[in-house]
Structure formats: C-alpha cells, structure tokens
Amino acid sequence: MSNPPVYTTSSGCPVSDAFSTQRISVQNNDYKYRPPVGPLLMQDFKLIDSLAHFDRERIPERVVHAKGAGAYGYFEVTDDISDLCSAKFLDQVGKKTKIFTRFSTVGGEKGSADTARDPRGFATKFYTEEGNLDLVYNNTPIFFIRDPTKFPHFIHTQKRDPQTNLKDANMFWDYLTANPESLHQVMYLFSERGTPASFRTMNGYSGHTYKWYNAKGEWKYVQVHFIARQGVHNLNNEQAGKLAGENPDHNTQDLFDAIEKGDYPVWDCYVQSMTLQESKKLPFSVFDLTKVWPHSDFPLRHFGRFVLNENPTNYFAETEQVAFSPSNTVPSMQPSNDPVLQSRLFSYPDTHRHRLGANFHQIPINCPLKSGSFAPQIRDGPMCVDGNLGSTPNYAGAYNCPVQYTAAAKVAPDGADEQYQGEVVPYHWEICDYDFAQPAKFWDVLGKTNGEQEALVHNIAGHVQAAKPFIQERVCEYFSKANPAIGQLIKEELKKLSKL
Ligand code: NDP
User: Fold this and answer.
1) Are 267 and 302 in contact (CB under 8 A)?
2) 438 alpha carbon – ligand 1 mean position (Å)
3) Do both 30 and 7 map to the same domain?
4) Residue 26 belongs to domain spanning
5) pLDDT for 303-336, tens place per residue?
6) Which atom from ligand 1 is nearest to the alpha carbon of 438?
7) Active-site positions?
8) Residue where a domain stops, chosen among 57, 82, 99
9) pLDDT bucket at 27, cuts 50 / 70 / 90
10) Could you tell me if 132 and 36 lie in one domain?
11) Closest ligand 1 atom, CA of 296?
C-alpha cells in the first residue's frame, strides 16, 4: 500500500507502537535484554481500548440460521405480471433492483458444517423504491410444522440435549413421529436434496402463501419459486459427512470462489397464483405450510431472474448483520393468514432487536437506501447513527410532517376478500388423511430418478440407527403413512447397517 493508514486508538489518536504496553520498569540498566517486570498501567488506553472492544466483538448468534454466507447481486424483471402485482420494482420488463442474498443452514451453530442434513435458508433483500422487500425462503417447498406454537419445541429437538449438550437421535425422531404433519418435509430433508452440493445448486421456495395485489386492488394468493439455472446438485450422505470433517465451510467457500472468478449464479423466478374461489376447492388449506400447490393445477409463471455477482467486503458488517424479515414488504405484497408466517412477522424483527439493537434498520446493509425511510416517531435509542432525522418533529401530523402517503399501488381490495367472524378459539391443527397424500406423491416423484428412493431409505436408516429400538419402530410406522413399502425398506436397511 503506498499510503497505509495510520494506526490509532478508537478515538483517532495516533499510536506510535501498536504492540508496546505501558509498564513500570524496575530494571532500568539493561532493560532492552531483560524486560521490565512491573505491572501494566491502567492509563494505557491503547491496550484497554483494544481488549475491551475485543471482549465485546460477538453479538448473539441467530438461534436458527446461524451459519450462513451471502452475496450482492441484482434482480431483473423478465415478464410483465402487472395483472398480478403492482410492486414498483416489477413495473417494467428489464428493470433491475439491487439485492443481497444470504444462504444458511438452520439448526447448526455459527461454526457448524455447511453440508449438514438440514433445510437451507434462502433469504433475499430487494432494495426497492418502495422500501426493502425481504423474501425469506427455504430450499424446501414445505415445512415441519403448521402450528407456530410448535416451533421452539421442534427446534430444540433438532439441536442439543439439555444435559449432554449432544445432538440426540431419540429426541429428534421422538418429536417428528409424534407430529406426523412433519412427514412431507422430513421426506424431502432425507432425500438427496437435504444435502445440497452448493448454495448455487439448490432452489428456493416461499413455502408460505402470500397475497399479491394489482393496481385495481384485486388480489390472488401466490407462492414463489426460485429455480437454480445451475441445476439442482446434491451430495450423498457419505460425501456430506466426509466434507463436514474435511471442510466444514465448503458451501461458503464455493459461493465466494465462484463469484470471485466471475462464475455468477443465476436463479429464475416463478410465481404460482390462486384465486380465493380456487382456494376453497382445495383438498387442503391454502394456509397449510406442509403442502405444495400441484404444478399441474397451478402452473409456474416466469417473471424474473436474479444474479449474484459481488461478494461482501466484510462478513460481519454485511452477512452477519443483515436482518431479514417477512414483515419487510412493499404495499402490493402482503402476508396471508398462514399462522406460521404470521408468527414470523413478529419473531424475525424481535430477534433483530435483540441481536442487533432497536436501530438495526440503520445498519447500512439493512437501510432502505433506495426509498429513504421517514418514520418520525422511530427516534433515539441505542446506536442511533443516521442523524436521527435531525430537527424534524418526532411525531406525524405536525404542520410540516404528513400523516398519509398516497401509494401508487391500491392495496385495499375492491373485490371479495377473506372474511372471518366468530368467537376466539384455541385452534390446534388436527391430522387428517390428506396429510399423507403429498408425501405419497413425493415417494413416486423420487421413483422417477434412479436411486433416489434407495437413497432416501439409506439416509433415514443411517440417522435413526442411533436411536433406541422403540423409536426406530415408530420411525418405520411414521414413513409407512406415506407408503408401507418405505417402513419395510427402512427395517431392512437398519438390519443391513447393524451388520456392518
Ligand atoms: P410434479 O410432478 O408436477 O412436480 C414434481 C416436482 O418435484 C418437480 O417439478 C420438482 O420440483 C420436484 N422434484 C423432482 N425431482 C425431485 C427430487 N428428486 N427430489 C425432490 N424434488 C424433486 O408434481 P406436483 O406439483 O403435483 O408435486 C408432486 C410432489 O412433488 C409433491 O407432493 C411434492 O412432494 C413434490 N414437489 C412439488 C413441488 C411443487 O411446488 N409442486 C416442488 C418440489 C417438490 P422443482 O422443479 O421445484 O425442483
């Protein structure tokens, strides 16, 4: 570097020797060879400044999705979908919007292996002119639960035992088999797609149902799919286990290296849509996160693509501090009544307030830079770094501070909307026969590719062999709900593995 920066304390005071410490010398004669042995001095701000900050350089890691990697890129509109959605960033074919995407595993800690069998988080922040839109997705089109109350219970069983601090196959399978609405997702997770070869070679799915509005105020339910142009490529169980030991950061490195050498990954964006009337004819609830919308009834409609073409320059500032939430949306894209989605609307920003502080939206990676943000009542608090709206009144409705903004998109629906009335009820979603119809279809889908059914059975047996025999028995019954052959095949595979 021709002009290296001058090393200073945090207050900017130049430091002449970065590595010296202030100590009382008791041996003045030849201290060059025998260092002074006196104590350190409290006045040595350079040292205290450095250590005190070092002691504080961790923030709480995310309880889920702790291990991740991210990159910048852009989204480009490829097809007109104004009949479906009036979001400004979609209003012109060819229009580009800056994005940041973060991929992650779910259950593992910040240093855990990228190749673990686990769903992958797939979250994209779109810096649009109507504020930041976060699409907070997974690489699986369904999920383990549909009652949000189950989430902390479920996650605990996939993490560590309270006494041993070990992962525990008994509690893992005990929970899942007792809550069989999880079956569809568990089959997906134990298929080869449960261990993607790279973040670049997996798809992303909204899973949840959302509502999109056009400029007339008409709305439809939608689900969004990001399909990897690179194709879907996976590791097998043994390859994933080996890589977890040899290079636990395999997928992080793969993404960084690919972008560094100009091999930019691309995803095509599709939307499935459904009217309110159509939703009433479904054999399942449109708000059920354990179900997909069959392609044949709800075809995928292409509307865009996104490209990741720039690595972050600082992992912590960008990838660690990025704060996604499904509540970050634009006027014409609204959440549905999917209860798990609704609970995420609360839980995600709540996590960020805890993890990053009340002013997390001021951190540059989270700032709605393109739209600007003007919420005069959101003021003060910890780490307020953006000028705090200066001398502007701290309430809306002041003579120079408007109460209302006229949105370009008309959001209030003109046509029929969902209507709810009645008493407050303690609703716990019951299991029904249809819950096993889509897992059964999934087994057939796997049957279309050589070796996929065998891989599913092998991957399940390899995991459940660490559980007690009565849990193994329950696991076989659980998968038999999709197809009795699966339970039988797992039994046989368990026998084979026990002889190895
Ligand atoms: P289709 O036959 O039209 O679609 C099956 C879909 O399954 C494919 O389009 C593909 O989705 C996905 N798929 C293909 N091979 C595999 C594999 N080896 N592992 C995992 N997924 C694979 O049927 P339906 O739409 O009626 O769905 C049938 C079943 O397929 C569902 O019950 C569900 O389990 C599964 N599925 C359905 C999806 C959907 O959104 N409808 C999405 C993914 C899986 P993709 O192109 O998204 O990879």
Assistant:
1) no
2) 10
3) yes
4) 1-57
5) 999 999 999 999 999 999 999 999 999 999 999 9
6) 32
7) 65, 138
8) 57
9) low
10) no
11) 3
